[in-house]
Structure formats: C-alpha cells, structure tokens
Amino acid sequence: MTARDEILARLRTALADNPPPVEVPRQYRQVDDRPDLVEILIDRLEDYRAVVHRGLGALPALLAKVGRLAVPTDIPAEWLAGYTGQVHRDAPPLSSADLDGLDAVLTGCAVAVADTGTIILDAGPAQGRRALTLVPDRHICVVRSDQVVGLLPEALTRLDPRTPQTWISGPSATSDIELNRVEGVHGPRRLEVVLVGLDDDPRGR
Amino acid sequence: MNRPGVDRSGTGASAAPATGGGRIRTPLPFPTAAAPAVADTQLRANLHRATRTIRGKRARVVDEVPDWEALRDAGAAIKADVQRRLPELLEQFEASATAAGATVHWARDAAEACRIVVELTRAAGADEVVKVKSMATQEIELNEALEAAGIAAYETDLAELIVQLGDDTPSHILVPAIHYNRAQIREIFHRRMPDAPADLSDEPSALAEAARAHLRRRFLSARVAVSGANFAIADTGTLVVVESEGNGRMCLTLPETLISVVGVEKLLPTFTDLEVFLQLLPRSSTGERMNPYTSMWTGVTPGDGPQSVHVVLVDNGRSAVLADPVGRPTLSCIRCSACLNVCPVYERAGGHAYGSVYPGPIGAILSPQLTGVADNASLPYASTLCGACYDVCPVKINIPEILVHLRQQAPHPLAERATMRVLSWVMRSPRRWAAALRLARAGAGPLGAYRERRTGARTLRRLPWPASAWTRSRDLPLPAPQTFREWWDQQ
Fold first, then answer.
1. Cβ contacts of A22 within 8 Å, gap of 6 or more
2. Closest partner CB to A10 (pick from B15, B209, B272)
3. Is-contact A48 B290, C-beta < 8 A?
C-alpha cells in the first residue's frame, strides 16, 4: 500500500465512530460599520511603527531622499512625477542581488484592513512580484481610501486565493529576546504608507 | 540523530492508526526532568518575566475584540468539522495543490518524512537548506536527518538561530529561546557567530542586527528552503505561513525549490475560514492584533517565487489521535502557545522538562497521544488541572478533560490501584468515610503537632515506599485537627 493510501485508510478507520456533522456558528462580526475606518487604520499602522503620510502630494518629498528606487512595471506614472533619482523597473526581473542594492521600493496594494493595521499585496496592479517588496530595506506603499476595509472577513471577499499574497502589518519585527519588540530584522526595516483619496485631501485621487 | 524516531507504522498493509516517532517523547519522567529546572533560579526568572509579559499583551488585545467568544466558537467548530472530514479534505487539498503546480507527498511517520525531504533536496542539487521555524520539522527531527545525509540546515528565525548556535533545543512553541536572557544570547552570538561584531552589546536591537547581517547572504543565495505551514486550505490548495521577522518571506520567496512539511491536521476547508483563524492566532500567540508578515502561496506562480513547490503531508501519530473521540480535539491546536504562557507548571519547570518539542499543557496531551500513552505516561500528570489553559485556548480545546482521560489510560502501579480500590470502598459510605477521617486524625494528630513545631507546616516531605512515589513531587498535608462539620456543630 502506498503511504497515501495507508494514511487515508488509517484516518478512515480512526473515524469509525462516525462523528456527527458540525454546524459552524458564524456569529462573529462580518462587516465593520464604524465611520472612521481610515483613522483606525492610521492609528494601527502607527502603533506598529509604520510611518503614515496623507495624500499623493507627500510622495515627492518622501522620494527626494531615495537615490535608487525599485518599482513594479505597471506603476502609475503620476506616482513618480517629479522624481529625479534612478528608477529600476522590474522588467526584465531584477535579480535578488540587484534588489539588495536598491534604497527603496514603491508599490500599491490590494486591500488594507483597518482593525488590524494590515496591508495586503496580491501581485495585482502596481504591486509586482513578492521579491520586490521584500529585499529593499524600505517599502513605500500607496493605499487608496477605497481599498480600506474594516475587518478581515471583508478583506477576504476581495482576494483571490490563487494569487501569491503577502500580508504586512508594520515593518519586520522580532520579540524573541526577552519578548521586547524590535523593529527591523530580515524584511524591510521601514514601512511608509501614503494614504490617498481622502475626502480632506483635494490632491488625492 | 540523538533520539532516533521510532517507526511503528511498519510498511505492511495494516490501516490501524499507528503511533508516531521523532522528538515527542520525554526521555525521563516529567518530575525527574523538571527537578533541575525548578531549582535553576536564573531560568525561573527568565521564564517568569517572559510569560508574565506575554500574558499581559494577550489579555489586552483579546479584550478589545467584542466578538472574541464567537470567533472561538467558530474556530472550534471549523476544526471539529475538519477532523470529521479529514480524509476527503486531504484528497481535495492534494487535487487543488497539484492542479496549481505543487507536488504532494505523503509520509506515514517521521522517518519517511525526513527521507522525502532529503531526496527532494538532493534532487535539487543542493547541499544546504534555509529553514523557516516549523514545529513539524522539529517534531520529525529533520535537521538531524539532513545533517546525517550531509545537508546543512540553517535555522533563520532569530530564536531558532539562538537555540541552534547554542547547541540547545527549543523550550517554547512560539519563542524557542524564551529560557535565555539578553546577556546569555549575546554570549552565544559572541562565541558561535564568526561575523558578529567584536563589541556586540546585549541590546535586543543590536542582537537582531547581528542576526540580519549573519543571514543576509544566505537568504539571497539559498536554492532550497524548508518550511512548515500554519494552515493548508483544502478547496484552493493554498498554504499559509505567519511570522514576524521576514525570514519566512525570504525563504518562501527567493529559493528555486520550496519544501513544506505539514501535519495532516493543519487543513481548513475553505479560504474564507482564514477570516476566523487569522484573527484568533496572532492575538493568542504574540499578543498582537496581527503578526507583521503572513505569506500565502498556491502551487507555482510563473515568474514569482519558487518554481518547484512540494508539500509533504505527515501523519506520524495523528491518525492515532483522531481515533480517540475524547482526545480528538487535540488536533484542533493551532500552536499559538497561549496555554504555555498561562500554565503555572510550565512557568516553573520550563519547556525542556516535557522532553517533547511540544511543551506545556498542549504538549502534555498531544505528545502522549502521538506516541501512545504507555510510552509517555508521565506527561498527563505535568499539570495541576487548574484549567487556565482551557480558558485561553482560541479553539476551546478542553485540555484538563483530556489530561484526566489520558491519566486513566496510563499504566498505574499496583500499590496505587490497591489504594484507590480501598479508598473507593471507604468513600462509598458516609459512615465509613467519617470513621476513616476520625482514624486518620487520631493517627496523624501527634505527628502533625510535631511537624508543626519543627517546620511551621502540617506537611510531610517524604513517605515510605510505596507512598514515596506520591511525595517525590509533592508534600503531603496532614489532616486538620478538626473537620469542618465538627467545627460547624460547635458553632
């Protein structure tokens, strides 16, 4: 008997008592009706030591200090308006060593979850492949207000499980030494979030 | 290999649930293994500080979730449903993952799982692998098997790295180096990390920076990575790894070949079920609203990440756990380690006393079920049955109930069985019970008074054989001079 068949047979034998069907109660919150989701998101992001900026107008100043910038191939041109440093587009794909030599990466995202301060990348528009947001030491991420949801259940309905996903809640961190939180281990040590499309920001879109 | 895995499954055609091997057995009885740890004041101070910190963090972030109990109920029910449908969900996972470009392997036990990983690594032409922290690979003693095959395994989680460099074993599910303080960690890095700065301080940020520099080149050049998985999604074939440091993302993204070792119980039926578990897990384990990084991948994505993706589904005793309807919910465990951090026994004895890679309350029920209770009979007693572990368990595993159930299955010494039979006869009659109490008080009266004068407490430290087994790890309180009923009658 193959290992597969043997394991499946063992498991079937183990269930000889024929346990009854289970009804999964889903009384947990599915939708967040709080009106200030963006404010909650900002609070959570800052709690995790991410740096939050408001409006696309913040980008030029942010990027002014970046010499060599990695970007996905489909990045909106307006995000780079006024940028004078070197732009390294991921086409043909940048090697890991190339990425390691760059100062920062600029991407968008798929969804942001206010309740947990989580930004989700799913290789969709303006996000690129996973290595792009992993190797450079600084990640600048543009989040549109229409990408912000309150709770995890709302986020999952917007995601396609077949895409490779990276969920980011703050920069890389460890709590392995006496349970003290230290930001910055192997992933990007700085996460900067640019929130756009806010009502109070006429430059946003 | 220090502790060779015990292969009890054989290769025959028997489908009977088989117990597992690997590092899941305590080599010494728990009281013996715990004694030196309890006497180590530095260790107790490290553990007390760490568990108290994380208990506080967990309580704060759980309190801010208004529907926490509803999430726990959903989590427990989803896992019960998984257990009931495990064979069909595994087949569904295999089909989905295969369709997405992954290769699924099956391992009856620890030895078979190790063999598969060694063969896959060799087939990829590599003589080293980078590893994401994983309980499953600890359980099957994969690092030892790789080493025996001439393959170097590099742990990349900071705590696992500390433990590996210190030639030690992990002592906590989530924080494997919880038993070290910063000065001890600096000492290990200073001694064993050749590229660490000579003036390395014991500041956590400096230690993390040293680990980053140490592993950076290895991440960028590794060709094979080995991981576990927190969840495996049956309907899509997706694997999920939650982590904090980014070492997971490095391993799961940059190498050409990715091998994930996954216990068969890790399945969830649908992608949507993650909405429950990704709320329960981070808050219960690190006391955070969400862990910094979660990675999900479904087979192979052309041009993005590993192009050779393997999943090794491991039984290693899990079918034996499934076969016991009382012990079955143990398979719901999502390895959050909340139960360790609230356990008064774990806080004093530390993780090494449990012998197994699974310490604490969950280890006290999981390990003996994986190996068979007769082979790990002291672990169900490594508890005071206080119930704190059940209160914090995000998937509501009734650990105290399962502990008692396992104690009943463990072999009991003749003297204990005889004593219990006599006690049972005495306690069945109120008259006999009252008489026995009077007798015990009369007998113990002078002794109790003597002990109280000598030591200030009415307890005995050592009883003669066979009752010495009882007092080896406890003091025996002597009967009070007066019962409650007698006192009540006097009032």
1. B77, B80, B81, B84
2. B15
3. no
Q: Which residues of A touch B292 (CB under 8 A)?
A: 48, 168-173, 187
DSSP states of B375-409 as a string?
GGTTGGGS-----HHHHH-TT---HHHHHHHHHHH
Residue whose C-alpha is closest to residue B212's, from B191, B190, B193: B193
Query: Can you tell me whether residue B48 is helix, strand or coil?
Result: helix
Residues in chain A: 205
Note whether B195 and B165 are within 8 A (CB). Answer: no
Q: Does A167 touch chain B (CB under 8 A)?
A: yes
CA distance B449 to B428: 30
Could you tell me the pLDDT band of residue A183, with boundaries at 50, 70 and 90? confident
Please report the pLDDT score of residue A200 as a whole number.
Answer: 52
B57: nearest Cα among B393, B392, B286: B286
Cβ separation B15–A13 shorter than 8 A: yes
Query: Tokens for B378?
Result: 């002291």
B251 φ, ψ (degrees, to nearest 5): -70, -35
CB B433 within 8 A of CB B426: yes
Give the CA diameter of chain A. Answer: 70
| Nearest C-alpha neighbor of A113 from the set B412, B6, B279 | B279
Q: Is ipTM beyond 0.90?
A: yes
